[in-house]
Each structure stands twice: as structure tokens, then as C-alpha cells.
Amino acid sequence: MKDGFRQSMAWLHTWCGLSCGWLLCAIFLAGTLSVFRDPITNWMQATPALPSASMQTVLSDEALVPRALAQLHQLAPQARMWRITLPTHPGEALTLFWRTPDGREQASLDPGSGELLPSPWGRQTEGGRHFMSFHYTLHGGIPGYWLVGWVSLCGLIALVSGVIVHKRIFLDFFTFRPGKGQRSWLDAHNATAVLTLPFLLMIVYTGLAYFSTSYMPAPLHALYGSDEDAYTRYADELSPAVPATSADGTAVNRVPAYLPELVQRADSLNGAPAQTLVVERPDQPGSKLRVVARVAETGSSRRLLNPASSVLFDATSGALLEQHADAARTDLHAQDVEEVIKTLHVAGFGGWTSKWLYFICGLAGTLMMATGTLLFSIKRRRRSEQEFGTATAGIYRVVEALNVAALAGTALASIAYFYANRLVPAAQAERSQIEIHAFLWVWAATLLHALLRPPARAWVEQLAMTALLCVGLPLLNAVTTGQHLGVYLAAGDLQRAGVELVSLVFGVAFAYAAYRAHRSAARPVPARTGRGAAAAMDGL
């Protein structure tokens, strides 16, 4: 390979990686946290313990469904849609959700008695869904959605060009020289890149491919039109419903026109207990009931694609309209390719083992991007190149501030989001949006702080603050809700206990990083290195 081409790839890798590296670092960290969005949501909801009688005796689904429907008839008779989510774990409440022209509402039922629980039951929050939304839109609507797509494409280019640039990339994977400044950063960058290279290529590509019809809508619009229902027609054609059959192989045309009995019939057709019931246009002509089956733990499954089965009934006559039963399928459709891509991207297979592997690889990928932007700053600061004339010093000052905000700032904003969840009153209106705004404001404040403070001090202060908040999260939880790690462990609630344990581990890691940055910043710095930012980063 000619040196000229390699040099061109080096330029592309440097500037493509730098221009998108800061946002990609934040996007990757948010995506990594969203792997555990369900445990995060459970922790942030902070639902109180159910009455002891309900913990011991839970009504059957056949008994709970009529009571849930009766409550919905009373609470939301004019709603456009009802949704019932049945409990899956001990201690969980049954959730009622409905949509009206004025917005969305929610309530909870005691699964032991079927009685309505006080509202709000727990804290209304986006929970882990916030990190997922930030991951693919930056909470910026359509512009943010397209921005994430653009930087993801730039990230894919930076990955490929990085492989071309590094002649000894796989050999360098086994080389790490701590305490060697710039050389150590390059070693760390290479090691994390090679370690996670297959994962990074897969995760960035599947992220782009999953939204391909949105990023490149022309073929879809040409074949299915450009109205709001175009994608629905496209999806229905790709994945048609499978005709249902009864146990003796005859077609099923009618089932009893009584919703609880329809749920029992759905359990038989789906081959699994119901998880979610959705009633469209309740008590109106054309009303429909969709029953989605509970998805079993995928850890022991040999299949990558493990979709939930579902059936659709006419809620008035009881006629079976559609069946999407995974067990009844003998072939695959084009839609399954998209589902596999989605499953690969969101770790929807392999159970908790896959989630932990995604989490670890996501953290390593985030560090790879962060070390790349830091390496650029260290190299250019020491070379003192005047690429931008008199504005060079100011531009590199902004680069250093963006480095701080992209890594330490995003981490600080993320833990601040958890704090906002506990500090905003549970009955506060629009509290979920207040939590998200707190995340965004803290993130913006970290950039301002990094611009106003010397880079070395900004690193130390933001890392130390992040460590302090991470370590203090279990204490804040105990003070504000009365719940804590001991309560979770005693109840066998490993998901919420895991959130606090991971927070403590992060606290220790950030404290160590702050200590190393502080120790390095205190060393005598040669005059040519400027403000000491490079030296502070050398010691991390």
C-alpha cells in the first residue's frame, strides 16, 4: 500500500474522528447505559413495596384482567386506547395506561387485591428510556436524529480508515507502556480499538442499517407513497400475519366475545402467558384487542431472533383477525432481516450475559473514542503547529474543553440525571421532562466550566464531582425514599441493587482518574507544553 494513500487515510482518520468524536463519545456512553434501561427504569420509579398480603398471594391473570378492564371503564371511558401490562416479577404492580386527546395517563393496580393503588405509584420518569432516546436523537427531534446518523457514518469511516492507517495495529494490541505520556495514550487507543473492533463495526453499522428507510426514504416513498401510513403498509407486506389454527388443525374463525375469555384463548394460541393487552377504540365499533405474549428469558435460546407472539381479535365479535405466533412459523420474511439487525443492536438476545458483554464493550468503545480525541490534543499542543494562524491557540483551547465535556461532562450529566430523579418531588407535574432538562443543563454547564477553567483543573474537578455523586447515590436513595442496597438485596431485587453497585464501582473508577489527573497536573511542566493540560492527561 502506497504511503500517499496511507497518509490520506491518516488525515481522514484524524479529522473525521475528531469532528464526530465528541458527540460519538456521548452517544456511545448513553447507548452503553441504555443496555440496562429496564433496571435503571425500575430503580428510578422507586415503587413502594406492595402490601404484605399482595406479596404472598397474587391473583391469576383471569381474575386480574376483568378488574383492570372495570377500572379502565371507570377511569377512561372515552380513551382512544387502553393498555394493560401484567406483572412479571414478585412485587410488581399491574399497570394501566390510556391515551386521550388531552394526552397520556397511567395508573396501577394491586395484583393481590385488584384495587387501585395511590397515584402516582412510584415516580413518573423516562428512566433508562432517556438514555436510549438521547442515544439516537440527542433529544433534538428530527434534526438530532439526522445529526446522530451523520456522526455515526463519520464514525464508521474513522473505524475503517483507522485500520488502514495502523500497520501494526494487532501487534500493538499486546503493547502497553504506562507512564509514557503520548505513547501510553496511543497504546490505550490501539488496544481498546482492536479489542472492540468487531463489536464497534457491528454496532455502528446496525445502528445505521436499522434506520435505513428513514435515512434513505426515497425507495419507500416511491413504492408505498409518502403519507404517514406508508411505513405501515411496507411492514405489513414484509411480515404478513400467519393464519391461526386450532389444536386439531382446523381454522379458527370465532372465539367468545368476552375479553377475559379472549385472553385465555390468546394464551393458548401464543403458547405463553399474556404480558400486554392493548384495546384500540374501546367500546366503539371496530374495537380490537391485541394480546402480546410474555417473552421468555433468551439466555438459553439458540436463536438470535426471539420475538414475542401476539394475536389480534375483534373485541366486539371475538373474531380472530391476525396471529403473529413465532412457534407457528415455518419460514422467514424480509422483515426478519430488520428484526435481526435491531436485535443485534439492542442486545435483544443471550439474556444478561449478552447485556454485560455489550456493556463492557460499549465502555471500551467509549474510552477508545475519548483517548483518540485526547491524543489529538496532546500531539498538537506539543508540536505547537499554527495550522489556523493566530486562531490556533483559541481553537485548541476549545478542543480541550470539548474533550472534558465529552467524557467527564457526559458522565457527570448522567449521574446528575439520577439525582434529579430523587430530588424532584414525586408529585411534580412533568417531572420526567424536568429530569431530562437537568441532564441537558448539567451537560451544557460542564462545557462552560471547561471553557472557564484551565483544562487540567477542569478534568480534576469534573472527574472528582462525578466520583462524589456516584458514591453518594445509594445514600441519597436511602434518604429520599427509604430504599437502599440492603432492602433490594433482602428482597432479591438484583436489578435495582445492581444499579447502586455499578454506581459505586463507577465512583471508585472516577475517583482514581481524578487522583491521577491531579497528581499529574501538580508536576512541573515544561514551558512548551502550555497550560499543563497535556501533562494532566499523561498521568491518567
Quick recap:
By secondary structure, this protein is of the alpha+beta class. 61% of the residues lie in helices and 8% in strands.
Give the SSE layout.
Blueprint: H1 3-34, H2 37-45, H3 52-56, H4 61-75, E1 81-85, E2 94-100, E3 103-109, H5 129-137, H6 141-165, H7 169-172, H8 182-210, H9 212-215, H10 218-224, H11 230-238, H12 259-270, E4 274-280, E5 288-293, E6 310-314, E7 320-324, H13 334-346, H14 351-383, H15 392-423, H16 431-452, H17 455-481, H18 485-490, H19 494-521, H20 533-538
Antiparallel strand pairs: 1-2, 1-4, 2-3, 4-5, 5-6, 6-7
Helix pairs in contact: 1-5, 1-6, 1-14, 1-15, 2-19, 4-12, 6-8, 8-13, 8-14, 14-15, 15-16, 15-17, 16-17, 17-19
- Report the strand count: 7
- The percent of residues in helical segments reads 55-70%
Q: What overall geometry do the principal axes of the alpha carbons give?
A: globular
Separation, N- and C-terminal Cα atoms = 35 Å
Biggest sheet: strand arrangement: 3-2-1-4-5-6-7
Describe it.
- The protein has 20 helices and seven strands.
- The chain folds into three domains: 1-46 and 123-237 and 334-383, no CATH class; 47-121, no CATH class; 391-540, no CATH class.
- The protein is of the alpha+beta class and 540 residues long.
- A seven-stranded antiparallel beta sheet has the order 3-2-1-4-5-6-7, covered by helices on one side.
- The chain is 61% helix and 8% strand.
- Mean pLDDT is 82; it is low at 244-257 and 527-531.
